[in-house]
Amino acid sequence: MAEAKVYNKEGAEISKLDLADELFAQKPNGAVLHQAVVAYLANQRQGTSMVKSRAEMSGGGAKPWRQKGTGRARAGSNTSPVWVGGGRAFGPKPKSWRMELPKKMRRAALKSALSAKAAENKFLVVEDFDLEVPKTKTISQLFNRLGVSEGKVLFLWEGKSNLEKSSRNLPYVLSKRAVLATPYDLVWADWVVVTASGYRTLAETFV
Question: Given CA atoms 187, 190, 194, 200 in this order, what sign does their dihedral have?
Fold first, then answer.
């Protein structure tokens, strides 16, 4: 059975939590996890790169010079790809890079990533708390006390609060709602810090 340490908002350990085996005690599937990461990165691509072919360039109507007798190479169009300013041969065109994965495969990848973090003791739970106003310093001090600020941190929370605004300016932190966590986020992070409500959301949503 996997377990995680539970901390208060001052960064002091207060208890331990038995994690859901269905989500945190699975044998990691590297192949599925790799496929999920590749699909995630592919889906971030805009696919808007484009250059003009010789047919789309302006000009090219008249032959630049006569075929023979000038001492220069033959040329039929000033839009040729071999000319400076000409159209490009086989250049990129707008396309969709989107990749779809079955729901079961997405779930398996997420469970693999969470189980790997739990096995490495890199999954920490913080009791629910909120801030009256956004305060980056408070969250920074918390991460320092937890000993995670030297690495990349995935901070997961749930509900409307000032935690997101308080943590998003920290360069080593990726802050988001727990239900929106992806396998890529978990692979990217060295540490996962989740609020108690965020953990409950993970367990209720993905188990």
Answer: positive
Instruction: Supply 4's token pair.
Output: 């995680």
d(Cα 52, Cα 90) in Å, to the nearest integer? 9
And the tokens for 202? 């993970």
Q: How far apart are CA 159 and CA 55, in angstroms?
A: 54
Write out the residue range of the structural domain in which residue 178 sits. Answer: 3-46+100-206
**Residue 70's pLDDT is what?**
95
Contact 178, 201 (CB under 8 A): yes
Q: What span, in angstroms and rounded, lies between the C-alpha atoms of 134 and 123?
A: 24
Q: Within this chain, do residues 78 and 104 fall inside the same structural domain, yes or no? A: no
DSSP class per residue in 41-96: HHHT---------TTTSS---S-SS-SSSSSSPP-S-TT-TTSTT-PPTT------
Domain boundary among 91, 114, 148: 91
**Block means of pLDDT (10 residues each) for the chain, length 207 residues?**
89 92 92 97 96 93 94 94 94 96 95 95 93 92 94 91 90 95 96 95 89
Global pTM reads 0.83
Name the nearest CA neighbour of 160 among 197, 207, 203: 197
